[in-house]
Amino acid sequence: MLKSRIITALILIPLVIAALFMLPPMPFAIVIIAVCMLAAWEWGQFIGFKSSAFRVPLAILCGIGLGALYWPVYASGLPPSASPIASAFLLASLGWWVLALCMVLSYPASARFWKTSQLLRLMFGVLTIVPFFFGMITLRQYGFQENAYTGAWWLLYVMVLVWGADSGAYAFGRLFGKRKLAPKVSPGKTLEGLVGGLVTSALIAWLFSLFVPLHVSLNTLLICSVISVLASVLGDLTESMFKREAGIKDSSHLIPGHGGVLDRIDSLTAAIPVFACLIFLIF
Hints:
By secondary structure, the protein is mostly helical. The chain is 75% helix and 3% strand. It has one domain. The longest helix is centred in the last third of the chain and has 29 residues. The chain is globular and about 50 Å long.
């Protein structure tokens, strides 16, 4: 298992970095739509769709819907950060993750209100996947006309931030973890690990502010980064909650040694839109 995880990571990480820095806006959006379609296919299990006869059409509808939403944004010639469509979904993500926080904190009692409704679970999937898509393209296309790589640095920063915070939380949790963060949802997470992840994220923000052209004040970067890391933890916990209710361990087995697409991007589905919303719409 460890060997396959390492091999897969060594293949995927260069591909992700290459996609960030080398793909123009439209091909990049197509790649992200493909990722979102796979995520929607996996989300079908949370809705209660066990058969591919339902999950494949769900993934296709996701791709068509994202394409239809993105086309007017792309055709306008304006950056996505100036698009009412992108802005609406980024703002909606804030409301969704506040609701998700309440659901996680009150789990399993909260499950009584949504586990019997396929429509609610479908809506939760829309509010997870669509803002993630718009967060990705909004960050990637930031400043694209002036410098094609500015947005790529922003996206790479958020990814490194989330992955670094996750590693810091794991290390601190193993060394000092005693108090459980959300034992009914994810027994392995601890409050000490959360603190370690936040400390790691602050260190990453400081280092990036010194060596990477992000063009933002350190104070703003720290505030946005800490909130985004907290959101990333919530994204992880929310997916764990849905998997627990669905009775599955991994969202799928598409990525050898890593589970499914949602298992790899669950933290990013929260952190990316929240960070984009904070940077472009609030700060």
